[in-house]
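To the wet lab folks,

You asked to see what we're planning to order before we commit. Fair enough. Below is the target structure as tokens, and below that is the sequence we designed to fit it. If anything looks off to you, flag it before the synthesis order goes out.
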């Protein structure tokens, strides 16, 4: 799943109005306490989440753990914010970014161990079928879940979907330390450019130092 997020509710509200105007089917809408989300599928059936973050100062935290929820979305309020600027909707704004990605994994503990101990993410939330991991205190950059079932086989190469993703670390020193951890874990993968790892489910991760 590819989730996209906006910094303000107004553009996100206009996205909801635009999707509603075109009749594009939505799979769901939720309030996660840290953000508000719309769920839909792309034409290939890949799940998409379009969301707006609330300010970090408003994220509910208990005992150091971010308390994400699944509550009904205030649809009327979001649509009202979207109508504050009535210009025609022409698609997602250019400032839209990919905020986090959902990975279906076969074994949750194995995936958490890789992304926490090898990649270096922090575990932000954990329930029996899901773990949220991130860097820099964000609520989650990766959602690791076993919603397809514990031990589920990977998708066929004939299924349209994610072929890999890129992780930028702060500098060459951090990249070197990450390379050492990958070598120790046996996660380093052959690559014609840069540095590549494969997680326990075979998902390719391209690694580079931020420019």
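Sequence we intend to order:
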């Amino acid at each position: 799943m590819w989730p996209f997020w906006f910094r303000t509710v107004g553009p996100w509200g206009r996205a909801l109005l635009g999707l509603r105007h075109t009749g594009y089917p939505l799979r769901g809408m939720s309030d996660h306490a840290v953000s508000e989300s719309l769920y839909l599928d792309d034409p290939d059936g890949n799940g998409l989440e379009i969301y707006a973050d609330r300010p970090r100062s408003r994220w509910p935290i208990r005992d150091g753990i971010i308390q994400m929820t699944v509550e009904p979305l205030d649809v009327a309020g979001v649509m009202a914010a979207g109508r504050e600027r009535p210009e025609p909707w022409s698609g997602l704004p250019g400032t839209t970014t990919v905020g986090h990605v959902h990975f279906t994994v076969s074994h949750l503990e194995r995936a958490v161990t890789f992304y926490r101990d090898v990649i270096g993410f922090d575990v932000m939330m954990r329930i029996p079928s899901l773990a949220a991991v991130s860097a820099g205190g964000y609520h989650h950059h990766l959602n690791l879940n076993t919603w397809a079932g514990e031990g589920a086989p990977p998708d066929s190469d004939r299924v349209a979907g994610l072929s890999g993703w890129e992780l930028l670390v702060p500098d060459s020193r951090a990249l070197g330390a990450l390379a050492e951890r990958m070598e120790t874990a046996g996660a380093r993968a052959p690559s014609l450019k840069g540095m590549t790892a494969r997680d326990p489910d075979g998902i390719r991760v391209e690694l580079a130092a931020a420019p």
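Structural context that might help your review: The chain has two domains: 2-98, 101-150+163-209. Residues 101-150+163-209 form a domain with the 2,3-Dihydroxybiphenyl 1,2-Dioxygenase; domain 1 fold (CATH 3.10.180.10).

Thanks,
Computational group
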